[in-house]
Amino acid sequence: MPKNISDAISGFFTAIQKTIDKMLDYLNPTSDNFFLKTAFIPEDGWFSSQITSLHDTALLKFGWVSDLRSMLSSITMNDTDGIENIHAVIPIINRDVTVVDFTYINQHASFIRGLCSAFIYFLMIIYILRNAPSVWGQMT
Q1: Using an 8 Å Cβ cutoff, are 77 and 110 in contact?
Q2: Cβ atoms within 10 A of the Cβ of 25, count?
Q3: Would you write out the chain's pLDDT as a tens digit for each of its 140 residues?
Q4: Which residue, 90, 106, 107, is CA-closest to 98?
Q5: Is the pTM of this model over 0.70?
Q6: CA Rg value for the chain
Q7: Of 111, 110, 128, 115, which Cα lies nearest the Cα of 71?
Q8: Quick check: is 123 in a domain?
Q9: What residues contact residue 35 under an 8 Å CB cut-off, 6+ apart?
Q10: Would you say residue 62 lies in a domain?
C-alpha cells in the first residue's frame, strides 16, 4: 500500500507542477503562449477566413452581381484582322479583282464596335431604370 500512496502523492505534485509551469508560460512575454499574444493576435488564417465569409455572404445577398459579371464577361470584342475583301477572278483577262474593299471599315472597326456597344449599354440602362420600380416593389 505505501507504494500506491507514494504514487498518488507524486502524481498530485506532478499535476500541480505542470499547472504552475503552464501559468508561468502564459505570463512569460517571450513565450508563444503569452496571454496578451493569445488574446490580441489572431490565429493564422483568421483574416482570410473572415474575408471568405464576407465574400460568401455578399454572394448570397447580391447574387445578381455574379450573373451580371458572367453576362458582361461573355461580351467580347473580337479584334481580328477584320473583314476579308471580296475578290473575283475575271476569266477574260485572267486577273483577280477586288469587288468590295473593306479597308476603311477594318481601320475603324474597333471604334464602330465600341459605338455599338455604348448604344446597347445605353438601351440596357434605360430598360433597367424603367423596370426598377417593379423590382424594388417586390423586394419590400
Answers
A1: yes
A2: 13
A3: 456 777 778 888 888 888 888 888 878 888 777 777 777 777 788 889 999 999 888 888 887 777 777 776 766 655 556 677 787 887 788 888 888 888 877 788 778 888 899 999 999 999 888 887 776 666 55
A4: 90
A5: no
A6: 37
A7: 128
A8: yes
A9: 26, 27
A10: no
Non-local CB neighbours of 98 within 8 Å, separated by 6+ positions: 85, 86, 87
Structural domains of the chain, count: 1
Host H or E run for residue 99: strand 95-100
Is residue 59 included in any domain, yes or no? no
- Beta-strand runs (E) in the chain: 86-90, 95-100
Domain coverage including residue 88: 75-140
| Nine-digit cell string for 114 | 465600341
Contact, 93 vs 105, CB < 8 A?
A: no
